[in-house]
Design goal:
Keywords: Signal. The chain is mainly beta. The chain has 4 helices and 41 strands. The strands form 5 sheets. Strands 28, 29, 30, 32, 33, 34, 35, 36, 37, 38, 39 and 40 form a 12-stranded antiparallel beta sheet that branches. Helix 1 runs parallel beside helix 4 (476-483). The radius of gyration is 30 Å and the shape is globular.
Length: 705
């Protein structure tokens, strides 16, 4: 029994903590279902020698109806696949040459065939599509088979989904990955197959009704599903208490003074002059917020990535550093605050050694700093940015960033291996560790995102040794050996922040992080002909064509900030002014950046940031003068309001639809322009781009997912 328990613990380690690297976990499972769903699906699978058909049958159950805010969970999913024998052993060679006899309707012993099946299933409700996150199924041969095919079967338990709106909720299959292993026919080398159905067949559906009166306002407890975890369907958003301002106030909620947590307020250093602390002493109440996010975590030792979901309450601006004097001080804004991350257990199902499905529940709990007598569990939050209208100089910081730091520990329970429960006790978990996350939110070239629009946090953490794992035997060393270590990477995409004290109810109307699915991806060239920048009157800079070249990865769950770095080129450019034309050479100060704005009503809006154009040519001093031998320059970008001798970057904003990005911008002629004003591009004047339609080759699709 001891040896068996240790083997189960070793297998369980993969799933036990894989979902717990984030500061929070996913909501738990819902009740079992009752109505049958399923389909027989003819998949076409790609092999090195062509395509083969694999018939797959899926059978599960789901409730006949569901309600908003209540988990909907299919029951045990049974899957079977009829796999052609040639995929495993290749065509048979007749003994002694000649033609092989037809295969008799007898059987072949193929019980040694095993494998896994990953069925990609979408959950569809209206225009919203989520990945159902079905588990990987372990497959085994079901008894004897014909010589033409082997039948593999398996089963598993899927995760629940908690609908947030009424309407039809459907499951659709979109892909299949098979990994097959025949100890005789494949010489120990598994065969991997990527398979697609001829369409996106529906497996089943559930009609979702509105909340019951008793359930209205009650946070849902189920789990939204996506490979990058769907955030909880509802966020228990509450106003985190303000810091103490009077003697006797609760000291638990304030900046955490622990040395390692407080370090984020001092590194990187803030400017030594031109700023002031607000308030000069103590704390302001600050502003309370809620946010929820989704992402993934890697456990380095296991080489695996697992979905995570997050929900946080925090205060920003309890301490602020800003320009002093306001209009002539340093271009710098810093807000300090504290954060509390609430957690619920999250479950993971993986395949461990020997294709054994392993399930465990884990959560990350936020802990007080070591030696803190107040039991202050909050972590620290720091946001630093230049003023986004860069009108005060000198710059105190070039980019906008956020940092978050807290103490956490991993707790593990409810472990099972291949359906066999493994009792790890009630106190199995890791020691206290420091979780540090950071977010880059832009600079002058890339453009900026507002902190409360949501951002991407990334970071690494060490997982300490485990303790108190096992009942009757100490399984802690196995968890430590399988999981503990450094270099465990986490990435979380935050949704827009909301204010619980405002009229808008964060619980009733939660906003999810917007990540994008991009297809088909690849190298893209976007062209417009002609390309025109209009100056004063009829003056214009006109190019025969402009091209934007960039690369987009085909991927899911892509953050919309810094989608692609863009290299622009211009051909056949002239200055047209006062009835004359003069050749120009257009160049840019640096590459540009595409950023996405939130998709609203299926409308995709893109920004093209980092625009600073230099147009040089030989331009006469007067409208009727002779062409000189030297060149001057027209520089078009943006001008800081109170620093007219400086120049900054401009941006284009426009909609993307049907393979075309149609954008406009009102830019400024900078005071580093050396060409004469009669050109229609005088210093501090305007240069306008109106409805420039860039056609993309190949066209791209941007969808929420």
């Amino acid at each position: 029994m001891l040896q068996y328990g240790r083997r189960l613990a070793s297998l369980a380690a993969t799933a036990a903590v894989a979902t717990a690297l984030a500061v929070v976990g996913m909501p738990g499972a819902g009740p079992s279902a009752s109505a049958d769903i399923g389909a027989e699906l003819p998949f076409l699978c790609t092999t090195p020698t062509g395509t083969q058909r694999v018939d797959v049958a899926v059978k599960a159950s789901a409730p006949a109806a569901g309600r908003v805010g209540e988990p909907v969970q299919p029951g045990t999913v049974a899957i079977s696949a009829n796999v052609p024998s040639t995929l495993l052993r290749g065509p048979a060679e007749p003994a002694g040459g000649g033609t092989a006899d037809p295969v008799a309707p007898g059987v072949q012993a193929m019980a040694g065939v095993t494998g896994t099946a990953r069925l990609d299933v979408d959950i569809v409700q209206g225009t919203r599509v989520l990945d159902a996150g079905w588990p990987v199924f372990a497959l085994a041969a079901e008894g004897p088979s014909t010589g033409e095919a082997v039948r593999l079967t398996g089963h598993g338990v899927t995760s629940p989904i908690t609908p947030s709106a009424p309407g039809q909720l459907a499951w659709r299959a979109r892909g299949l990955t098979l990994v097959l292993d025949d100890s005789e026919g494949t010489a120990g080398k598994p065969v991997s197959l990527n398979c697609t159905p001829p369409r996106s067949p529906r497996l089943g559906s559930v009609s979702v009704r509105g909340r019951t009166p008793a359930a209205a306002g009650v946070p849902a407890t189920g789990q939204g599903i996506a490979p990058q975890a769907e955030p909880p369907s509802t966020l228990e958003c509450f106003e985190i208490p303000p810091p103490p301002v009077n003697p006797g106030d609760d000291p638990e909620y304030s900046l955490n003074l622990d040395e390692k947590l407080y370090e984020i307020f001092n590194k990187p250093e803030r400017p030594s002059t031109g700023i002031a602390r607000v308030p000069p002493e103590g704390y302001d109440p600050g502003l309370p917020y809620c946010a929820r996010g989704a992402g993934f975590a890697n456990i380095k030792k296991l080489g695996s990535a697992t979905p995570i979901a997050a929900e946080s309450v925090f205060r920003r601006g309890v301490v602020t550093y800003r320009a002093n004097p306001p209009t002539t001080g340093t271009n710098y804004l810093e807000q300090q605050g504290y954060v509390l991350n609430t957690t619920v257990p999250s479950r993971a199902t993986i395949l461990s050694l020997g294709f054994m499905p392993t399930t465990a529940a884990a959560e990350t709990v936020q802990l007080r700093a070591p030696g803190d007598p107040i039991n202050r569990k909050v972590g620290n939050l720091r946001i630093v940015a230049p003023l986004q209208a860069p009108n005060v100089r000198p710059p105190g910081v070039e980019s906008s960033n956020a940092w978050m730091r807290q103490y956490v520990a991993v707790r593990v329970k409810d472990v099972s291996v291949n359906g066999t429960a493994l009792n790890v006790g009630q106190n199995c978990g890791s020691g206290r560790t420091l979780l540090s996350l950071s977010s880059f939110m832009g600079d002058e070239e890339t453009g900026f995102i507002r902190p409360d629009d949501g951002q991407t946090f990334t970071g690494e953490m060490d997982i300490p040794a485990f303790s108190h794992c096992g009942v009757g035997e100490d399984l802690s060393p196995l968890f430590t050996a399988s999981i503990s270590g450094s270099g465990n990477y986490a990435k979380i995409e935050s949704g827009p922040w909301c204010r619980p004290s405002e009229t808008r109810d964060c619980d009733a109307d939660p906003e999810e992080p917007q990540t994008w699915t991009i297809s088909p991806g690849g190298d893209v060239t976007a062209t417009v002909a002609p390309f025109v920048i209009a100056g004063t009157g009829a003056s214009q800079i006109r190019c025969e064509a402009a091209a934007l070249r960039f690369h987009l990865d085909k991927q899911h769950w892509r953050q919309r900030f810094m989608l692609a770095e863009v290299t622009p080129t211009f051909t056949g450019c002239v200055l047209s002014a006062s009835g004359r034309e003069f050749p120009l050479a257009l160049s840019v100060a640096s590459n540009w950046w595409f950023n996405g704005r939130p998709i609203v009503n299926d409308t995709v809006t893109l920004e093209l940031n980092g625009i600073l154009i230099n147009a040089s040519g030989k331009i006469p001093a007067t409208a009727t003068g002779e062409v000189p031998s030297t060149s001057c320059a027209i520089r078009i970008g943006n001008i800081p309001a109170l620093a007219s001798t400086e120049e900054t970057y401009a941006g284009l904003v426009g909609g993307y639809a049907n393979g075309t990005f149609t954008a406009s911008a009102s830019m400024r002629v900078t005071n580093k322009t050396t060409c004469p004003s009669w050109t229609g591009f005088s210093r501090a004047g305007f240069g306008r781009i109106t409805n420039a339609a860039f056609a993309w080759d190949p066209p791209q699709n941007f969808t929420l997912k």
